[in-house]
Write a structure and sequence with these properties.
9 strands, single chain, alpha/beta, Rossmann fold, two-stranded parallel ribbon
Length: 219
Amino acid sequence: MNNITANIIGATGLVGTKLIQLLLEDERFEKVNIFTRRPTIFSHQKLVEHIVDFNDIYSWSDEIQGDILFSTLGTTLKNAGSKEKQFLVDYTYQFQVAEAAVKNGISNYVLVSSIGANSKSNVFYTKMKGQLDDAVQKLGFKQISILRPSMLDGNRKENRTGEKIALKISRWLTKYVFKKYRPIMDITVAQAMINSIFNQSNKNKYRIYESEEVFKLSE
């Protein structure tokens, strides 16, 4: 599988930024389309940057063309301002783009979900993630890979004091217990996303990789 055209939403986020770097360095990928609300720092002959309005997805959905859609879009409740607005970003936008990709003939879909995602959960965040996991399964992709990493680690642009404290605690605690909840680096998740496409052991249309599997998949 070579000369691949990839599409990314969530390109300015922690995982999305690393994913772009890896795809631009990977000779198997011929073209990388990114759809973002603001310009990125990247400039490359393989890269095509689309500045878009996610509130009007269907005005630019025809630009989603190629072989793969990587979906890493997401926000926090604090940044969103309400559960309704977070749901709009984390569920609605991602589902609408996935739906458009299928319509345009894209066959492969790779989604970053979250550890504990479960549509029957009583926790808003994990329920929302589980609902998206379930919904995209019903779309007509030939192959769907869903990664459920634990807390993401990396160099964020914005200052998230609470998250930094939580990461420090989590790094220490998961050395000894609750190892499946150990933080995972952004580049590890990004590499696992790419590797999921070429994973020869993945014979099923729909595959979920739990957090520990994400570590292994990145190798």
